[in-house]
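Hey, quick one: can you model this chain's 3D structure?
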Amino acid sequence: MNRHHWWRDAVIYQVYVRSFLDSTGDGIGDLAGVRAGLPYLRKLGVDGIWLSPFYPSPQHDHGYDVADYRDVDPVFGDLAEFDRLVAAAHRLGIRVLLDIVPNHCSSEHPWFREALAAAPGSPERARFHFADGRGPDGGEPPNNWHAMFGGPAWTRVTEPDGRPGQWYLHMFTPEQPDWNWREPAVAAEFDRTLRFWLDRGVDGFRIDVAAGLFKHPDLPDSPDPEADARTRDSVNPLAWNQPEVHGVWRHWRAVCEEYTARDGRERLLVGEVSVPSAREHAKYVRPDELHQAFFFDLLGAPWDADAFRKVVSEAMQDIAGTGSTVTWVLNNHDQVRTVTRYGEPAEGSGLGAARARAAALLMLALPGAAYIYQGEELGLPEVVDLPDDVLTDPIFRRTGSRARIRDGCRVPLPWSGQASPFGFTSGTESAKPWLPQPEYFAEYATHRALADTRSSWHLYRDGLQLRSALDQLGEGSLRWLETQPGVLAFTRGDDLVCAVNFGTAPVPAPVPGTPLLASGPCPPGELPGSTAAWWIDGS
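Sure thing. Here's the predicted structure for all 539 residues.
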C-alpha cells in the first residue's frame, strides 16, 4: 500500500454522532462518546473516521442546517472536547474528517437573519438566492424548481415593513437556505471555516452536496421541475453540477496542499457527488480538485453479477483513469441499510444478511478506498416500523410519506445488554435513546459480535487486517476472470482472487487453493450462493 498518499486506499468509518455513543445520559450521542468508542474502531482496523455535523444547529435536518460553522453544539460537547477527541484519535493512528455543508446553512445562521432584516438588492441578501416573485403581485415563486425533500424550492419572506416580499431558494427545506457562491463573501467565509478546523488538527473534510453550490445564473424554469423531489437526488441540471463549482474545489485543494506543505501530513477532501455518469464523476477528482468523491453507483446497483461488473468496470475506466482512486461505498446515513436493501422477504430473512456480507467483502477487495457506515459491521438491519410520532426526518414532515425516509438507518447503535438502551447511553436502564431501538437489536450488540467469530464484525475486521497485510489489496488494478453466469471473479495481483456468487447454488472455486477469507461457510473448492470469498492460489 502507498503509505504516503494514505487516502488512496484508506478505509474510513462514518460516525453518525447522534447515534454512536452517549456519554451524558440524555439519549443523544456526543463527541465524548465518540472518543470513548475509539478503541473499538481501532480494534476494527479502520484508517479514519468521518464525523457527521456537530455544529450549533436547530436540528431541523440533524445538523445539516448549520447555524455556526466554527463551534460545537452544546448537545454534542464543546471545542475542548473536540480537541481531546482529535488528539485521542491521532494517538491511535485514526484520522479525523469533518462533515462540512457548503451548499446551504440554517435559517438561524446570523447571515441569513441579516438578510431577512435587509432590503432587496442589499449585500446581505446577495449572499443567498433572493429573487422577486412572478405574477402581478409577485405571489408566484421565481421559477418552478422543487426541493429535494418535497414542496417548492422557494419560500416568500415578509419584509421588515410587514409587506410580502421576495423569495429565497432552498433546495432541501425552508430551514436550509442555499448559499450564493457567486458572491465572493461566501467563498471567503468558508475559507475561514476550513482554516479554523485545519488549525485544530483535522485531517480533512467530507463535503456535503459537493456538486451543488452554483445554480444557473438566470435561475430559469426546469423542463422537469419535480425531478429532484421525485428521485430524491440532485438531477435538476440547472441547480446542480454547474461548471463553476470546479473552481471551488481547486481552491480548497490548494488550501489543503498549503497545510500539507507545512508538516507533510496530507489533508483529504472527499465529496458527496451525485452526477449522471462515471465520466462526470471523474471531473471532480482530477489531480488538482477533490482527492476523492463517493462513487454511489455500487450502492445503487441491483444484486446481479452483470450489474456489479458494469459499475466496477466503468469506475475503473473513467475515475481511476484520472490518476485518482475510486471511493467505494455501500451505505451511509441517507440510505436503507444494506442487509434490508439486499433482502427479499419471500426468500427468507437471512438472504439480505448473506448478500450484505458478500458485498462488503467485494468492496474491500476492490482497488481504491472504502467507506463504512456505522453499524454495517454489525450486520444491522433497517428499523422499518418506527411509529410516526417518533420520526424526525424532514422528508416525512414535508411530504407526509414514509417512502425513503432516513430514520430507520439512524437508530442508535446497540453496544451491550439484552434491552434498550443496549449500552448506548450512560443513563439508567430507563434512559431513552433519541430514536427507539427494537428488542431484536440485542442480537446485534457489539459485545456479542466481538465474541462470535462468525459475526459480520469479524468478517469486516479480518478483511481490514488482510487489506493492510497483503500487497495485492488496496490501491492497484484488477483483472476480470471468466466465470459461469451469476458469478463475479477478479484477480488482485498475481495470486489473490475475489469471487462472488450472486446466485443460489454452490459453484466451483474460480482457482485451485484454500479459501483465505469467506463471507459464509465456504468448503474448499466451493462457493455457496450469496457468498463472496478471497482465495490465495495454493498451486
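One thing worth noting: The chain has 15 helices and 18 strands.
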